[in-house]
Amino acid sequence: MKYLSTQNRKARRTLYLAAGILILFTASCSTQPAPIGQASLPPSASASSPQAKEGVMYSMALPQSSAGPLAFVAQTGLPGSNGQTAALGSQPEFNTEEYQRIVDNPFRNTLGNPVSTFSIDVDTASYANVRRYLMESRKLPPKDAVRIEEMINYFTYSYAPPTGEHPVAATLTMAPAPWDPDHWLLRVAIKAKEIETANLPPSNLVFLMDTSGSMDEDNKLPLLKQSLKIMVEKLRPQDKVSIVAYAGTAGLVLDATSGAKKETILSAIERLEAGGSTAGGAGIKLAYEVAKRNFIQGGNNRVILCTDGDFNVGVSSTSDLERMIEDKRKENIYLTVIGVGTGNIKDSRMESLADKGNGNYAYIDNLLEGKKVFGKELWGNIFTVAKDVKIQIEFNPAIVSEYRLIGYENRLLAREDFNDDTKDAGEMGSGHAVTAFYELVKRGLDPQLNDLTFQQITIVPSNDVLIFKLRYKTPGDGQEASKLISMRFDQQALYKEFAACDDDFRFASAVVEFGMLLRDSPYKGSSSWKSAMDRARAAKGADPDGYRAEFVKLVEMAELVAGE
Fold first, then answer.
1. Which of 208, 200, 355, 176 is nearest to 289 (CA)?
2. pLDDT tens for residues 463-515?
3. Residue 62 β-bridge partners
4. C-beta of residue 431 within 8 angstroms of C-beta of residue 460
5. Which first-to-last residue range defines the signal peptide (predicted)?
């Protein structure tokens, strides 16, 4: 592996600048300038269709079938929906960031679709990326960069931990929705057990570092190096660290080294320099080979990919990489993805790779976020206590006429997937918390949707608003059978006044409102920057790390930017 000196690095930057000026001069003299950012649409999408507007990807709703008995509805036959994506093309030349097209989940009629099923998600990348847009670029983020579930789950909440046999516990809370008091807001709160660091199994961590030319910016490789140095202090003697770099040709920078040898690891990190084109496919293969060679039986074996996502020269296609990552996941070698940088983030690709590898996806926009990811939350991010965690809720049509899951658009599952243990879902790490919100329409209010005309529905009398179910698997136990947690929510447990809810509920609802405003959601109701800001400020609570106070500033900045 060849590492570049500071002098060579500066010289290369000078050459890049000169080449860029020459290209721009040549383009300006051309009588046929090449169009920037054009994309051909699929036959089903016209230039005026929603899919043809923002984003480089679009989602298409497909029918899903139902399965399993219902508690509240004696007969139903209407399908739900699932999503697929297809590429549309690239964005403008000087901003090639890519985000998957997101269409807000709609309201669903409980008479035809009483069951909602989705996979949990502990990713936090979207929030840090939104912060980067607002605080560094001073502009609103693209709508498709805003994944509301990741914004909610960025924060720490004081949820009740599990006390019994299960590694996760669920708490349900419901109150009037602040942006539409005639509707209800349901919070689903999941908390994973927290294992003391000293009691965690040993870790075999392989850091796959993107050292290509695109990483040669202060907020990319240099920021990653600073963040990794924070991580080194957290390592224990029983942990092993390897470093693989890829830039043109993949290479082993540091073979498995004990966490006790911190100076050796720090020296290897310091030597990393950016240069060359990206060969991500080759790098990932080598990283997995190193992870397998140093595999710890019963331990935490994981590849951690650190990149801006610009896989532009790799020998394998993205689909080939995803298949390989899925195969390695079955061998209990997981993948976590850390994104950095501005201008060419391949957000949808990095999220997809992490999903396939049973890992999480985080974005580091500054050193404080690096400290959060590689310091404060390191073990929760890399040590799994529950895998393939799925949630299913059946709503009582006698009480709830319609419901809408807020966020999780790319985590939706078919109803039958809940009981199918071969279907992959999200993982929860030590101490992780997952939050999801539903907006519910009470029976008797003017419906958002029309009732069915031809189908006869018989409703079973019950005081329960809903039945909640959660499935998970225990990692590393050799058993592929999932375990079930189930509970009912009685309408007597409903908070009559929103102000009576705990700080966590009220603060998280402000994050939801902020996300809907950033996305300009058609379901935002009476949401406003001021109401989100005021509610978040009033519900900051203890806020030891200042993240909630920072959120209030983000909302204030968004209001200023939106008003320009």
1. 208
2. 999 999 999 999 876 667 999 999 999 999 999 999 999 999 999 999 999 99
3. 82
4. no
5. 1-33
Would you tell me which CATH number, out of the four given (3.40.50.410, 3.20.20.370, 3.30.2290.10, 3.40.50.300), belongs to the domain 197-382?
A: 3.40.50.410
- pLDDT tens figures, 517-534: 999 999 999 999 999 999
Exposed / middle / buried, residue 154 (Cβ in 10 Å: 0-12, 13-18, 19+):
buried
- pLDDT tens for 421-437 read 999 999 999 999 999 99
Q: What is the DSSP string of 355-370?
A: HHTT--EEEE-SHHHH
Question: Rounded to an integer, what is the distance from CA 11 to the centroid of its chain?
Answer: 38
Residues 6+ apart with CB under 8 A from 140: 133, 134, 518, 558, 561, 562
Q: Where are the domains of the chain?
A: 61-195+385-562, 197-382
Q: How far apart, in Å, do the first and last CA atoms of the chain sit? A: 49
Query: In Å, how far from its chain's centre is CA 555?
Result: 21
Burial class from Cβ neighbours inside 10 Å (0-12, 13-18, 19+) for residue 14 reads exposed
Neighbours of 540 (CB within 10 A): 16
CB atoms within 10 A of CB 222: 16
Nearest to 291 by CA among 243, 258, 340: 243
Put simply, whether the predicted model's pTM sits higher than 0.70 gets the answer yes
What single-letter DSSP state applies at residue 198? G
